[in-house]
Amino acid sequence: MSSIVKKDATKRRSRLRPLLALALLVAPGAALADPDNLVEITRGKALVTAGDCVACHTAPGGTPFAGGLALQTPFGAIMTPNITPDSTTGIGSWTADDFARAMHDGRRPDGTRLYPAFPYTYYTKVTRADSDAIFAYLRSLEPVSNSVNRSTLPFPFNIRSSMAVWNGLFFTPGEFKSDANKSEEYNRGAYLVEGLGHCGACHTPLNAFGANKADRYLQGGVVDNWTAPNITNDAQAGLGKWSVEEIVQYLKTGQARGVIASGPMKDVVENSTAKLPDADLKAMAVYLKERGAAGPSAPSPVAASDSRMKFGEAIFVDTCAACHVRSGEGIPNVFPKLAGATIATQDDPASLIHIVVTGGQGAATATHPTAPTMPSFGYRLSDEQIAAVVTYVRNSWGNAASPVTADTVKTVRGKVTGAAD
Amino acid sequence: MARRLPRKDVAIVGLGWTGSIMALELARAGLEVVAIERGPWRDTATDFNIGTAPDELRYAVRHDIFLRPRQETLTMRNNSSQAALPIRRWGSFLPGNGVGGAGSHWNGQTWRFLPDDLRIRSHLTERYGAGFLPEGNQIQDWPMSYDELEPFYDKFEYVLGISGKAGNLKGEVQPGGNPFEGVRSREYPTPPMKQGYSQELFTKAASGMGLHPFPRPSANLSTAYTNPYGCSMAPCTYCGFCERFGCSNYSKSSPQTCVLPALVREPNFEARTECEVTKVNLSGDGKMAKSVTYIDANGEEWEQPADLVLLCAYGLFNVRLMLLSGIGKPYDFSSGEGVVGRNYAYQTGSGATAFFENVNFNPFAAAGSLGAALDDYNSDNFDHGPHGFVGGASITNAYTNGRPIMYRPTPRGTPTWGSAWKKAVRDTYQRVTNVGAQGSVMSYRANYLDLDPTYKDQLGRPLMRMTFDFQPNEIKMANWMAERCEEIAKAMGAKTTQLNRLTTPWNVVPYQSTHNTGGAVTGADPKTSAVNRYLQSWDVANVFVMGACTFPQNAGYNPTGTVGALTYWALDAIQNKYLKSPGALVQQ
Amino acid sequence: MQTDDRSLMRAKFAPSTEKPKHAGMSRRSLLATAALLITTSGATAKVVTKVLPWRPNEVYPVTPVVPGGWLFFTADEAAVVDAIVDRLIPADELGPGAKEAGVTTFIDRQLTGPYGGHDWLYMQGPFSSNPLPTQGLQSPLTPRQQYRQGLAALSAYCKANFGGRGFTDLNNEEKEKLLSGMEKGDVKFEGFSSRMLFNAVYANTMEGFFADPIYGGNKDMAGWKLIGFPGVRYDFRDVIDNPNKPYTLPPVSMQGRQAWGER
Question: Which of A5, A331, A369 lies closest to B224 in CB terms?
C-alpha cells in the first residue's frame, strides 16, 4: 500500500507550514527567540522584507542572512556580514540596543564604524520600535556559523575610523519625522522610501566620496553597471507620466506601462516589494508622486541622418524588432516598450548597454511568473554596433537622449563580461 | 551500486509537456515532486537566442537539440521476417531531448480527435459491418469518449493559448471553423493566425468545390496571451523557424513559455537534468513501483524512491522503459499475446505539389501551424463504402518554412545539379505550394515494438526494435487522398501539378512525421491494452503512462492536442481518485 | 558511460561559473546560478528549483569560420573538392557558384567537427553488409573517412582512366560525365563506392551553399540571394499583411549585414 494513502494531499501543505514555523522556534539555536514575541517576530519579518535585507546578506548559493556577498563599491569590495544569531560569526551576542545603534548610528557594539554600504544613512530613520522588531525576527532565525572576511577593502579605505569624517560630512542621524502638512499615507510612504526601503541608495547619484548627493535625491544613479532611473515625479525622466496605481502595480508584479523590472530592481521586486502590503506600496507611490519633480531638460534627438542612427536602425530592424516591435511599442507582459521608456532616455545609458551585452532576466512574480528574458548579444555585436543600436533606441519614436560612443560600450562591456578593459 | 536518495511522493520521468503539467499540478496539490530529465535545461533567451536560433544547418540538419542516436536509438525493419538494423541517424522521425522535450521544437498544430475516432471500431462496424475492417487489424475503441475528454482538451488549449476558430460551439456550427469537429464548450483562447496568399487560394478553391476549409489550430499565437498559470506569450512573427527549433520570441506554446515559469515557483518541486532514468524498480511481487534508478551526468547511479511514478518521456521511450522494467506483459508477435509494444502506429503523408506562374508565395513568411485545412476527407466524415479503405486525412495547404537547405522544390525531371538545376531552383522557389494529406494509420498485428536481440545502448541495455510498414489499407487511403489534394491544387489555379503518393515500403531515411503512436495503449480490456482508461498500468498500479504511446491507433491529425487532453484527464483521476484511495482505478 | 556533447559545448561557449566574476554580476544572477549548482543529498545532478536558471552572458553561439587554409583537406584534396562543387553549382549568369561561395571551406570545417566523425550518431556494430534500402545509413565510415578514401579512389580512377590526369585536369564535359556516373553508381572505383563519395559531396555542397555564411560557405549570402531567402530576419508580419508581393529587402545572416556598420 502506498504511503500516499495516509496523506490528504490537498491539505498537507497547510498542515506542514505551522509545523515548520514551530520547528523554527524550538530549534536549538532559536532558544533565544521569545515564543511570546510571535507578533513582534512576524512584524519584524515584514520589515526585513521591506528592507530587502536578504538581498545583500546572503552569499551566492548560501544560507539566507548568513552573509558573504561581495558588494562592489567604488573603493573596493565589501563582504556583507552574517546577521543570523550565531554568537561567534553572527549577531548572536548583540543586544537590541546594539542593533539599534548599528541601524541608527552605523556603529558596531564595540563602537567601530560601519561602512555606508550598509545603508545606515537611511536606516537611521527607522523607528526604535521597528528596529527592535527586526532584531526580534533576526533572533528567531536558525544560527548559521559562517565566518566572513570583513576586511577586504584596500588601504586607505580599510581604516574604519576614516568614516568619522565621512559621517560628519554626509550623515544626518535621526529618526524619521513626519510632515504635518502631508497626509498620513504620504508620511507612511516617506518613512518606507527614505528609511527601510533605502530607495535613494541606488536612485540617487553618488559623489566622489560614495555618498548620495543630497541635492539630487531620487534623480537617478548607477548601481552594478545598471542605471537606476530618476524616480521623482519628473515628466520626462521620472515617474511624471505614471499614476499611483501603475507604480503600485509595478512594485507588486514587476510590470506596468510596458516596463518590466530587470537588473537589481528585479531582485528588489521579487524579494521585497512584491511581498509588501498593497497599502504600503500605495503609500510609497503617493509619496513619490507628491514629493516633487526634478530632472534634466530633454535634449534634442540625434538626427535620423546620423550614421549611428542608420546603422542602429538596421540592427534594430534585423535583431530587436521581432520582440520589441518596429514601432518600439513592445508586447504587454513580455517585451518592454522602448518608445517613451524613461530607462531608454536616462542621461546614463548603462542599463541599455548592459542588457544588450549580457542579456537580462525580468522579474518573476506570482501573477507574472514568466520572467521574460532579454538574450545576450555581447557575443554578436561589436562596440560600435551596440553604440549604434543603443543610440537609435534612445532617439527614436519620440525618445531623445545623448548619443552613445563605442568607448562607453567598451568600458561597460569590460565590467559586465569580465573582459579586459 | 546505486545510492539511495530520500523518498519523494512523485517521480516523473521526462520534463516535456506531460511531465511539466503533471509536476505543476501535483506540486500545487502539496506533493513532493521530482522530475528527472536526461537532457539539459533549456530556456528561451539562453538556448533559443534570436542571434543563434535561426540556424538551419545546426538545428534542422545536424539536429543539435534532438536526442543523439549515440545515446539512444531504435532498430527498425519493415516486417518480422527481416533483420532489424539500428537507426544510426534520425530520418523519418526526430525524437526530442532536454527540458521541454518535443514541446520545444514542435510545429504547434494542436488538434482534437473527432468523436468517431475515439470509438472507431464500434463506429465502423455499425456503419459498414465487421467485414469492412482491413486484414490483420487490431483497431480498438478508446476507453473514454470525446465528451469525457472535452473539458481536458479545453484546459490544455487554454494553457497553450491555441489560435483557431471554433467550428462547433455547444452544438452550433460556426462559420469559418471546422464543421466536422466535436462539440466545443467555448471558443479557442486566441483568434486564428493570419494566412498567406497560397492559403487564400486554397480556401477559395476548396470552398468552391463544396469543401469546408478553415485556419488550422495553432500553437504559434496570433496575439499576446496570458494563460491560466499566469505565463505570458507574444504574438508570432511568422519567422518560419518552428519545427526543429526553439522559439526566440515567446510566441510558440511550449513547456518553457506555458508551464515552467509557474512550475519552478512551487517550493516542493525540483528538476534534475542530465540524468537518465534507466529502470523503474518494482516490488518483489511486481505489483508496485518502489523507485526509479537513474544515472547522472558524471555516470553515477542513483535510486530515487517514490510513491508514484509517472512515465512522461517521449512515447517510444516510455514503452522501452516499461519493457526494460518489466511493467506489463511484452507483446509477442508470434502468439499475438501481451500488450507492451502492441499496436504501434504512425502517420501517412501524401498529396500534390502545385506550380503556379507569376505569384509570390513568400514561403519563408511561415509558421509551424500556419495553414488552411479541411476535414471533409478525415476519419469517417465521408462514405468509405465505395473506396474499400478505412481512415482518413486532414488536408492542408501550409508553409511551415522556406529554409533553403531542405526546402527548394523543383519540378520532377529537373537535373539535380548544374546550371539547369540552379535556374530551376531560383525560378520555382516563389511559385510552388503543396496540398498535403496527413492520414491515419490503423493498428495491425504485424506492426509492433519489442526489445532488439542484438543492438544495445551505451549502458548495455537492449535498444527497442520497431517493426513497421504501411499496410494496404493505408496505402490505398493515402493515395486516394493524394488525388483529392491534386484536385484542390488544380482548382487553386496551378499551372502544373505533381502527385505525391505514399512512399512504400516505409523508409527510415526521409523525414515523414514524429507522430509515433501506440505501444502502451489505453483500453478497457487488460488483454489488449497496457494501461486502463486513466492511463494507469494494469499491472503496476502506481505507474501512469503519458504520451501518444497510449493511442490505440492513430488518427489523421497531429497528436499533441490529444496527448495534452489525456494528461489532464489522467491528472484528474490521480487527484480525485488515486490520491484518495491508491490502487487500481479500474478493476480487472 | 555516457558523455554529453552538449555539456562540452556549454563548457566551451558559456561563461565559466568558476571564474570569480563579481563585477557587474547582478544579485539575481548569483541566485540563479546557485540554483543550478545546489546539490541534493550529495547527488551531482544539476538541480533546478525555485527560480528559472539564467546567467548573464549565457549564450551558445557557434564559432564563426575564418576562411583561409585547410584544417582537414590536403591542398590536392581541396583542389578536387573545389572542382567537384564547381560543377555541382557552377558560377553562371545567375551568380556565383559553390566554389566562389566558399563551399569547400565549409566542407573542410564541417569535417573537423562532430559531423565529420559521426560523433552524435549510433556507430556501434555489428555493421550489416546487406542492409535493406529502407534502413538508411549503415556504413561504419565516418564523413572524414568517406572523403579521405573516396577522394583517393577518385584520384586513382582518374589517373587510370584519363591518361594519368587528375580530376582537376579534366575538362568540364569530362568532369560532368564522371560525376553523373558517380551519382548513378555506374562508375566503379577501386575499393570505394563512387556513389557514396558523390552523395557526401552533393549533400555537403547543398548545405554549404544554403547554410548561414557563418559556417564558411554561402559567401555574401549568394545562395540566399539566388532564390530570395531573407535569412535570419525573424519577423515577416509585414509579408503576411501584404500577400503576393515581391520581397525586396536584402537577406540578413547571423553575423548581420553590411548596413549594421563596422564589426
Answer: A331
